[in-house]
Write a structure and sequence with these properties.
Number of helices: 16
Low-confidence stretches: none
Radius of gyration: 21 Å
CATH architecture of one domain: 3-Layer(aba) Sandwich
Mean pLDDT: 96
Structural class: alpha/beta
Strand content: 5-15%
CATH class of one domain: Alpha Beta
CATH topology of one domain: Rossmann fold
Largest sheet: 6 strands, mixed
Distance between the termini: 69 Å
Shape: globular
Strand order of the largest sheet: 4-5-13-10-11-12
Helix content: 25-40%
């Protein structure tokens, strides 16, 4: 059976485009695009056969099936050949049963999807492998032309794009808000040889510049406005279901900035239902930092569109976005998954991180936003003790060492370090050490 996927207008304009067309927005209405799959062809394989195929590939370490994304290739980008797949073995991340933390939060069936345990330390690898692979095939066939791959970023996207561009041998340009990303995030694209431009603005300002450069045809846009990113990121939903013996949780809690991941999770869970591998969608909680919360404001107001805002400084720097480009997609996901939106203050997100870390996790501040949101949902009774909940951890905590150190030395702005743990400095004396231990 031949499977195929194309680009189509999210708003419903007629026509379709090849994945390798290089189009980022609908040529008719300038709206967002989405990837559409030939579901009739995919249904020619039974749900049980899909499960057997995906389970058989799960243990492979060989390319392309060593990748959690490309092990689902028929559901992602079926026409990309092996020779053009650009992979670092992304995906197949652990679904960690956070039993101790769950007991503390009165959510015993709590799981954390460790998407940050990836090549560059964030979930962005999942979307970037698809985007760079499609571009690689498009360039080889002459379907598209690009002087460079480019993105605006608060850190993680730039790291992923620079790494995958380096693997493919493609030039990469990165626009970062100057002074607003961690040193660990800044050094990653530099190390991979990307041209890094630090602009005197925030992420939204960088996004406006990169969008105009893309419109002029100077670069190929690699932000999550690009629907190819969504296709890779949707495999998080597929992996969660597979790791739960082809079932879905009651809740998925997701830290969100540009809102592409909300659309991606919906796409993945919906595809599982459409092809008969599962029978329902989980509920979705989109979690935002209080200082960068345009989706939360829209939800509380009962609005169907998201009004841009000026995002303020937050320790959850990767989601400091006031004008999310994937807001229309996320709004659709929210309604389809009977979702809610919650927010977290700086103190709440930092305390949630510290509590999780005390149970063996090592959480980035964005995961702290999601955990703080879950705590609020449980307090309001929306989440029940019997509910199975999955929190999406979007990045590795080691990328945010300054945040961790600041918490424990008490220097984080607007944070009360209730769970701070500091080193005790002693002489190298056995009795002193024994007394300290006692």
């Amino acid at each position: 059976m031949t499977y195929r996927a194309t680009l189509r207008c999210f708003r419903g304009c007629d026509g379709e485009l090849a994945l390798t067309s290089g189009q980022i927005r609908c040529p008719k209405c300038d709206g967002l695009l989405e990837v559409a799959h030939d579901l009739a062809a995919l249904r020619s394989t039974s749900s049980d056969d899909w499960k057997r195929l995906f389970d058989a590939r799960a243990g492979s370490s060989l390319a392309p099936y060593g990748s959690g994304v490309w092990s689902k290739r028929e559901w992602v980008a079926p026409e990309i050949s092996d020779g053009h797949v650009v992979t670092t073995g992304e995906g197949k991340s652990a679904l960690f049963h956070a039993a101790r933390l769950g007991r503390e939060l009165d959510v015993p069936d709590l799981w954390v999807k460790q998407c940050g345990v990836s090549h560059t330390g964030s979930f962005k690898d999942l979307g970037m492998t698809v985007l760079v692979s499609v571009v690689s095939q498009g360039l080889a066939r002459g379907d598209l032309k690009a002087r460079a791959l480019a993105c605006a970023s608060t850190g993680d996207t730039s790291a992923a794009l620079a790494a995958y561009g380096a693997v493919a041998g493609l030039p990469v340009v990165v626009l970062l808000p100057r002074g607003k990303v961690s040193s660990a995030q800044l050094v990653q694209p530099l190390a991979h040889g990307a041209k890094v431009l630090a602009l005197d603005t925030d992420f939204d300002g960088c996004m406006r510049v990169i969008a105009e450069l893309s419109r002029r045809g100077l670069v190929y846009l690699a932000n999550s406005m690009n629907p190819l990113r969504i296709e890779g990121q949707k495999t998080v939903a597929l992996e969660i279901a597979q790791q739960l013996a082809w079932s879905v949780p009651d809740w998925v809690v997701l830290p969100s900035g540009n809102l592409g991941n909300a659309a991606a999770l919906h796409a993945g869970f919906q595809m599982l239902v459409d092809l008969g591998l599962t029978t329902r969608l989980p509920r979705l909680c989109i979690a935002q930092a209080e200082r960068a919360n345009p989706m939360y404001r829209a939800f509380v107001a009962g609005a169907t569109t998201v009004t841009p805002m000026q995002a303020g400084p937050t320790h959850a720097s990767a989601i400091r976005i006031g004008d999310p480009v994937s807001a229309p997609r996320a709004m659709k996901a929210l309604h389809a998954m009977n979702g809610v939106v919650e927010q977290a203050t700086e103190d709440e997100l930092a305390d949630a991180c510290a509590q999780a870390d005390r149970t063996g996790l090592y959480t980035c501040p964005h995961t702290g936003v999601a955990l703080a949101a879950l705590i609020k949902l449980r307090a309001r009774g929306l989440v029940q003790p019997i509910d199975r909940c999955v929190v999406i951890s979007t990045a590795h905590g080691l990328k945010f060492t300054e945040f961790k150190v600041g918490y424990h030395d008490g220097s984080l702005a607007d944070v009360t370090s209730r769970r701070a743990n500091r080193a005790i400095e002693l002489r190298a004396d056995v009795d002193e050490v024994a007394a300290a231990i006692g």
